[in-house]
Amino acid sequence: MPPLRITLSFVLCLLLTATFATPVEEGRALYDQHCARCHGADGTRGLFGAKNLQKSLLSDSAILHQITNGRRIMPAFKKRITPNQMTAIANYIKSFRKSSV
Ligand code: HEC
After folding, report:
1. 75: buried, middle or exposed (CB in 10 Å: 19+, 13-18, 0-12)?
2. Which atom of ligand 1 is nearest to the CA of 81?
3. Domains of the chain by residue range
4. Is the pLDDT of residue 30 over 90?
5. Whether pLDDT at 6 is above 50
6. What does the alpha-carbon distance between residue 78 and residue 9 come to, in Å, rounded to a whole number?
7. Torsion region of 59: left, alpha or beta (phi above 0 gives left; psi -120 to 50 gives alpha)
8. Does CATH place domain 22-100 in 1.10.760.10?
9. Atom of ligand 1 nearest to the CA of 57
10. pLDDT tens, 35-75?
11. What is the mean pLDDT of residues 72-97?
């Protein structure tokens, strides 16, 4: 029954993608590429007055707003990364918070 086999391999593909390309990994790669030069790999570098992300308490929507539009020295990223990538980054930087407590 070819259709069933096709369906099964499709499901398998989805599972593999979910396992290996997790948003956290994507968020980390994007963060290292776009944000770490000011904020540091762990969020504490503070170059140009960049906020310490381990102490930041911004809501999800405020983080996305800040990445999209920038603020003072921080550049806007809306032309460089997609909304999905911003969400991945936002989830990743929130993981810094737990390590500080
Ligand atoms: C050119 C340096 C620079 C880069 C690159 C940069 N930032 Fe920033 N970031 C700043 C500065 C400076 C501030 C403080 C701005 C302010 O609110 O006055 C800041 C503030 C923030 C805040 C607000 C924290 C708070 O509690 O107010 C968040 C969240 C943030 N950055 C995330 C990011 C993310 C995510 C990226 C990568 C997509 C990034 N930043 C890239 C310099 C930078």
Report:
1. middle
2. 38
3. 22-100
4. yes
5. yes
6. 36
7. beta
8. yes
9. 26
10. 999 999 999 999 999 999 999 999 999 999 999 999 999 99
11. 95
